[in-house]
Amino acid sequence: MEDVARFFSGKPKAVLVIDFGGQYAHLIARRIRELEALSVLVSGYMGLDHVVREASKYDVHGIVLSGGPGSVWEESHDDIAKWAVGQGIPVLGICYGHQLLGKVLGGKVSRAPRGEFGPTLVKVLDEDEILKGHGKEFTAWMSHNDAVIEPPPGAKVLAVSDGSPVAAMKVGYAVYGVQWHPEVVHTQHGLRLLRNWLELTGLPGSWRPGELIEELVNYVKREVGNGIAVAAVSGGVDSTVAAVIAKKALGGRLIPIFIDHGLHPEGEVERALEVLYKSGLEPVVVDASEEFLESLKGVSDPEEKRRIIGRVYAEVLVREARRRGAKYLVQGTIYPDVIESGARPGSDVIKTHHNVGGLPRDIGLRIVEPLKWFYKDEVRKIARALGLPEELEIKQPVPGPGLAVRIEGEVTREKLRIVSKADAIVRSIIEGRGLHESLWQYFAILTRSKATGVKGDRRAYGYVVVVRVVESRDAMTARPAKLPWDVLEEIAVRITSEIPEVVRVVYDITPKPPATIEWE
Ligand code: XMP
Asked: What is the per-residue pLDDT across 365-386, written as a single tens digit (0 to 9) for each?
C-alpha cells in the first residue's frame, strides 16, 4: 500500500510477515497483532525488490518467513531469506520459512525421514528464549514432507521430533526457525512462542487500535480536506465504524447512505437502521429495490448476479454522491480485503465477493479507507472504544448480495418472498431455542427443483427448500451442525405449512470443503 506514511504520518514500527502462500500467513499476522505489535503482510512471490520496497516504508523490528505450499527446491526465495538474515533484527522462519533458513545458511534440507501431518510430539533440547514455558515436550501442529536434516554450521538445535531432526533451531543473533505452526490453535504454547520471539523485537504493547481513534479522525481530515464525503453503510461493524470516524472528522460534510437493494433477509433493514441511529448516524435511505430486481431479470448465473449487484450498487452510490456534491467515498475496507495475498499467481477465484467493502476502485470518487490497516477483531476494539452499541455485532454474516445468492437461478419477486419467509422461520426457531451461539450461519435456500407432495388431500407440486446450518471459525472451512432432530422437524413442518408454495424441506449435510457455505 502506497500511503503508509500518509496514514501513520511517518514510518510505523512493525514486524514484516513475508507470505509464501501458506494458508496461515494472515493468521500469523493476526496473532502478532493480538500481542499488540503491528504486523504487515508482504508477498514473497513478488520477489526481493518488492519486499525491500515494502520494508522501506516501515521501521522494521522483526521478520517472519511464513509457511508455504512449495518446496525449497522448487521455489527460489533464497534471496529473500538471505536479505532477512542480513538485517540484524530478529527473524522467525515457520515451516517452509524454517527450511528456507536451513538451506540458505548452509544446513541440509531434504525429504523428511517421514512426513509429519497434524499433532506431533516435539521434544525440547534447549529452551533458549523462544521455547521458554514449553516444558520438556509438547504437541505441535505440523504439515511437511521436507525437513531440515542437518543444522547450518554454528546453529543450535533447540527441539526435535520423530520426523524432524531439527524441529527448531537458533542461528547467530536471534534468527530462529521452527518446523511447526505456532500460529494455529492446535499447537500447545503456540502463542507463547510467538510472544517469546516478539519480546526480542521490543514491540509488544506498541500497537493498540482502540487508542488510535484520534489518528484515524485526523487521517480522514487530511484526506478529505474541505470536501464532502459519502459513506456507504450497511449496518455491519466495518462500515459503521468507518462512518462514525468520518463523521467525527467531517461533521455534516459526511453523508451516510444506506442502499436498500431489496435483497435483505426479513427484518435486516430495520435492524441496520436502528443500529446506525444508535451509533449517531442518520443515513439517507435509498430504496433501489426496483432497480436491482429489474437488472437481475433473466439472469441465473451466480457470478453474473454478483457482478450485477456490485455494479448497480456502485451506480446508485455514485448517483447519490453526485447529487450531493460529494467527491469522496468513505469505505469500511479492512486489512484482509486490501492486502496483496501470497496466493500463487493464477490461483482460482472461487466466488467474486461483492459487498459494500468491495466496490470497484474506479467509480469516480476518491476512496478513503480509515480501517484498511485493521483486522476484524481490531475494528471491534475500535467500535468498543467509540462506545458503539453491542447490537452492531450481527448474529450471523449475511452475504453482500443477500438473498440473491440464496435463490438458485433467476431472482423473482415471488422467489424472494418465499426464501425470505423460509429464512425467517429457520432463524426464529434457531434463535428462539438459543442454538445460534455455537453456529456460524443458519439460513434457507430456495432451489430451482420442484417436487411432488400432498397438501390437504390434494397433490401439490411445489418448491424444494434447503436448510443450511453450519459451524465454522472463519468461513474457510465449515461443517454441518448436528441439530437436534426435533428442531429439524419443527423447521420442516413450519416451512411447509406456512408457505403454500413449498412441499419439501431438506437439510444440507455437506461440509466445506467440498461444498461452499452458500449455494451459489
Ligand atoms: P462460501 O459460500 O464461499 O462463503 O463458503 C464464505 C462466507 O462468505 C459469505 N459470502 C459472501 N459474502 N458477498 C459477501 O459479502 C458474497 O458474494 C458472498 N458469498 C458468500 C458467506 O455467507 C460465508 O459467510
From this structure: 999 999 999 999 999 999 999 9
Across 114-139, average pLDDT: 96
Identify the CA nearest to 318 among candidates 372, 257, 244, 243.
Answer: 257
**Given CA atoms 81, 87, 88, 94 in this order, what sign does their dihedral have?**
negative
Strand bridging mode 156-161 / 108-124: antiparallel
Kindly state the DSSP code that residue 443 receives in the 8-state scheme.
E
Indicate whether 354 pLDDT > 60. Answer: no
- C-alpha cell belonging to residue 24: 496461515
Q: What pLDDT sits at residue 348?
A: 46
DSSP letter (8 states) at residue 242:
H
* Residue of 299, 503, 267, 492 whose CA lies nearest to 407: 299
pLDDT bin (cut points 50, 70, 90) of residue 350 is very low
260 pLDDT higher than 70: yes
* Residue range 291-325, pLDDT digits in tens: 999 999 999 999 999 999 999 999 999 999 999 99
d(CA 425, CA 277): 27
> Which sequence positions are flagged as catalytic?
95, 181, 183
| Residue nearest to ligand 1 atom 4, measured at CA | 517
Name the CATH topology of 11-201.
Rossmann fold (3.40.50)
Domain with CATH 3.40.50.620 in the chain: 209-394
CA atoms of 330 and 233, how far apart (whole Å): 9
Residue with CA nearest ligand 1 atom 19: 399
Give the position, in ligand 1's atom list, of the atom nearest the Cα of 351: 3
- Given pLDDT bands bounded at 50, 70 and 90, which one contains residue 358? low
Write the DSSP string, 291-320: HHHHHHTT---HHHHHHHHHHHHHHHHHHH
Report whether residue 357 contacts ligand 1, using a CB cutoff of 6 Å.
no
- Residue of the nearest CA to atom 17 in ligand 1? 353
Domain 412-507: assigned CATH number: 3.30.300.10
Q: What is the DSSP string of 167-197?
A: EEEEETTTEEEESS-TTSTTSTTHHHHHHHH
> pTM for this structure?
0.89
State the architecture of 209-394 in CATH terms.
3-Layer(aba) Sandwich (3.40)
Q: Is 265 touching ligand 1 by the criterion CB < 6 Å?
A: no
Asked whether the beta carbons of 178 and 94 are under 8 A apart, the reply is: yes
pLDDT tens digits, 67-118: 887 788 876 899 999 999 999 999 999 999 999 999 999 999 999 878 999 9
